[in-house]
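INTERNAL AUDIT FORM
Audit reference: QA-55
Scope: verify that the stored structure record matches its stored sequence.
Auditor: D.O.
Record contents follow.
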Amino acid sequence: MSTDRHLLGTEGIGRLLFRLSLPSAVGMIVMSSYNVVDAIFIGRGVGSPGLAAVAICFPLQLLAGAMAVMAGAGGASIISRSLGAGDLERARKAFGTTVSFASGIGILVSVFVLLFLEQVLRLFGATEAILPHAEAYLSVILFGIPLQMFAMVGNHAARAEGRARIAMTTLLISAILNMILDPVFIFGFGWGMRGAAVATVLSQMVMFLWIFGYFYRGKSALSFVREYLVPSPRLLREIVAVGSSEFVRMAAGSFSIVLINGALVHWGGDLHVAVYGVINRALSFFFMPLMGIAQGFQPILGYNYGAGNLDRARRVIRLAVTASTALALIGFTAAQVFPREIFRLFSGDQDLIAEGVRAMSLISMAFFLIGFQITGSAMFQALGKARPAFLLSLSRQVLLLIPLVLILPGFLGTKGVWISFPLADSGSFLLTLYLFRRELLNLAVSGPVAGD
């Protein structure tokens, strides 16, 4: 474990980034594959109403994930910088605070939504045709949210100390098990939407047990020390401040999906909601590897920034930007060239496919810019720069996408929803570029403070 942390400051940047990013990227790809496979089974077993129901439930799942990522990213930033500065006690305190905070929030969210399930689903855009399928799915999914939130913060902590393979294994276990259980419960038992949800929750339970065992057995420098599990108010404020950018990004994504679903129901219908649900799942397959690169380079950047190795910090930033841009370009090409083939995986409904091809071609027009946006935001998180990270998280979803979705459909109908995405991506890219260039100049003349 100490060797892993030591390598963050000594191993060659290219090899180190590859070693840490590859497991994260593989894990994220597998998790995305499980989402895609989940949607394929639902599309084939339940049909377009099932796909629409998943699209309606997704914003709530994304909101819960946003809370976990806020805790995980904020805690990981403190952990990696503290390890770089040689302050192991502070890293352990941050870990304990992160675990307690995320677990408590997960339980509160699940209980609240269960108590007001129908009201929440209607608020999120469920129509009478979609509501029964959405209720069957979400009423089960909620039981796995606390388990998933714990596993997510555990993965962030493992990556923060250079143990990317542990995080990858956690995701692999959950995803592979879910792929196996999905057809068993959906087709074998005939449980439909509820079967898909049961498969997901069982997979999350196993994922929780795996990552819990990793820390409990003393495999990590971070462990469950009772006194550290009592949240530190000072560290909790820093965790929330640093991680708030990720929370805002994902929470805004959740809110924007609710608005998009509402706009699609108004200007199109349930079929268009199903189309957007498929596109969300399909593009996540290309989006997740970008998150893997960001997660792989954050501990390297945070450690070297905390240790004062600013030249290594600058080099890993540039390399991460190059790699993420290349991957985003691959995703853009696939979405533009093969939209029909992608939609045929999910459904044989010709109306769904025809609208899906048109929508995906428009939505993905500026996807090649996404990699730089993600890396830029992740850079500010790793450096502990909460304000610019927060602004970048606001830019795409809140400042650009939501206003565009509210305005353009009034002129262009559903096409206005689809073209809001590339316009928002382009504007966010320009803002990220401006802040990114300015921060690189600051890194050339300034150094970190271990506890900043």
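Auditor finding: record pair retrieved intact. Residues 448-452 have pLDDT under 50 and may be disordered.
Action required: none
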